[in-house]
Amino acid sequence: MPLRDHFHPPTSNIASWEGFHAQWPAMIVLQLFNRLPAGYVSEPRVHLGSRIEIDIATFKQDNAPEWLHTMNDGDGDVATAVYAPPLPTLEVEISLPDYDEYEVRIYDVQRGRQLVAAIEIVSPANKDRPESRNAFVAKCAALLQKGVAVSIVDLVTSRHFNLYRELIAFVGLSTESVATLPDLYAISARWVAQGERTVLQSWAFPMTIGAALPTLPIWLGRNLAITLPLESIYEPTCTALHIP
Length: 244
Fold this sequence. Notes:
Blueprint lengths: L10 H4 L2 H17 L6 E8 L22 E3 L5 E3 L20 E8 L5 E8 L8 H16 L3 E6 L8 H8 L14 E10 L2 E10 L8 E7 L2 E6 H11 L4
Parallel strand pairs: 5-6
Antiparallel strand pairs: 1-4, 2-3, 4-5, 6-7, 7-8, 9-10
Helix pairs in contact: 2-5, 3-4
């Protein structure tokens, strides 16, 4: 069955893209259940936005340690410790990007639940501003640097940016080899050591509305990989959400 456009009518009139994005990671985990070798587990992760309120309680004078409030002046008398910090060298108003996460993580249980692979499903919020795109790309680069295999699946038709191309540029490589890759795609990537060199290996699959989805290689170790057939996961997800 073909790939739908989840961001425009008629599909968006039947089910929201948020519902699809929330459902798909769970369906991927169900598919991985019978594909992962013994000792590996997967789980979905969905996180919307990056603004977190942190409530830090202040000490009341009756409960606070005495050294927080007083200091000895050298003559046996106790003087109040007052600290006047200098003016900041930089003070600017900023707006933190709301960072969405729709992903599936795969862990090696035998190595203390070591993260070995991450499947990132791109949302519109990952592509709407330079700060958001930088945050997504930096996260993927950090995972790759730690030896985690990263897959990116981008079905977003409402934002025309290629985050895989930006990832290639972010790690200092030429984007010439991926210049023709469309904005809808799926890729798998990993960094591996080859002798004294560290190389980036990636597998890119263009996607088109109306065409079948590809099968991705998911690397669990240097010489261990499984396949992830996106098409066979995509169709049950659409069926569960009544998307024709």
